[in-house]
Design brief:
The protein has seven helices and 14 strands. The protein is globular and about 55 Å long. Bound molecules: adenosine monophosphate and magnesium ion.
Length: 302
């Protein structure tokens, strides 16, 4: 997944780390369109593929969140992602190239048949980058629960899922990075409940970006404009399943401060924190039961 993953767990014996790593790496590879021979690579290459249940489930959740966000989150965003090429540092495309790419993006054109055959139109391609990390964390969490682990935290590049509590029966402490100040925390919260899973995911414009002529171009693209989305600097989502938190964070980020807030506020069992940049300060908005108050956040830019 081009990221570092951390697993913290407690128990009587040391986990088989090599097994956990191999398991996760194998699973992650299935969702990556860049890995030659992977199911998504196959689908993009030939326009159709029969997907195994685990991969199909992720594509279906992606399509569901795409519908819910009216295409702000769109797994067919690959032509645009390739154009901006953040994998190699990023490049500002020509307007005509953007218009061409936009013609090949629309999740409504993904066909899924009853037997799990997925078909996309010519020139289309899936990029599950906005959802796959969350999916893999869920898969690993379920695997660990099956193996008998009850209390653990898994983190990978901004996505976190926890199960149960820490060794001492206390909740896990999770910090949210300040989107503009290195080494500073926006806020710190406690998460976890005995026997329960909870996930927290942040999408931000500071994760992958380049700057040109004083403008920041980041990796979360608006399928309406073809450009990096405007309005927010970060979105944090808390919900049980990490796959949903991941996709919703990206979706709300693209939707912006108003529609993004509504998406998270209206969804049951889901909380969100949306941060925008406003002159010399950040402004934050939180959903009704977000476990931090706006007053608890460090919103200063200096
Ligand atoms: P995240 O860091 O989870 O917000 O996901 C960002 C990644 O999702 C990008 O690096 C792209 O691979 C992909 N992506 C970018 N824009 C979108 C979008 N509008 N909908 C779905 N995925 C996107
Ligand atoms: Mg995401």
């Amino acid at each position: 997944m081009s990221t570092v993953m951390t697993v913290i767990t407690t128990g009587k014996s040391k986990p088989d780390w090599d097994e956990l790593f191999a398991f996760t790496d194998r699973k992650a590879g299935r969702f990556d369109h860049r890995i030659s021979g992977s199911p998504i690579w196959q689908l993009n290459k030939t326009g159709s593929a029969k997907l195994a249940e685990e991969v199909l489930a992720v594509v279906m959740t992606a399509v569901e969140i795409a519908g819910l966000s009216e295409g702000a989150f769109d797994p067919t965003v690959l032509p645009l992602v390739e154009l901006w090429d953040f994998d190699s540092g990023g490049a500002l495309p020509q307007n005509e190239e953007i218009l061409e790419a936009l013609k090949k993006i629309n999740f409504r054109n993904i066909e899924i048949s009853k037997n799990g055959e997925v078909t996309i139109p010519e020139g289309y391609g899936l990029d599950l980058g906005g959802i796959a990390k969350g999916a893999v964390l869920d898969i690993l969490a379920e695997h660990m629960i099956q193996e008998g682990y009850r209390n653990f935290l898994i983190e990978a590049g901004g996505d976190i899922t926890v199960s149960g509590l820490k060794d001492n029966g206390q909740p896990w402490v999770v910090a949210i990075r300040h989107p503009r100040r290195k080494g500073v925390l926006l806020g710190v919260l406690s998460l976890g409940e005995k026997g329960k899973r909870i996930s927290i995911v942040t999408s931000g414009d500071y994760e992958r970006f380049f700057e040109k002529d004083g403008t920041r171009y980041h990796h979360i693209l608006d399928p309406k404009t073809g450009f990096p989305s405007k309005g927010l600097v970060s979105v944090t989502v808390i919900t049980s399943r990490c796959i949903e938190a991941d996709a919703l964070a990206t979706a709300a980020f693209v939707l912006g401060p108003e529609a993004g807030f509504r998406l998270l506020q209206e969804r049951a069992q889901t909380e969100g924190l949306l941060v925008s940049e406003d002159g010399d300060r950040l402004t934050a908005r939180i959903t009704s039961d977000f476990p931090l108050a706006v007053e608890d956040l460090d919103l200063d830019l200096e």
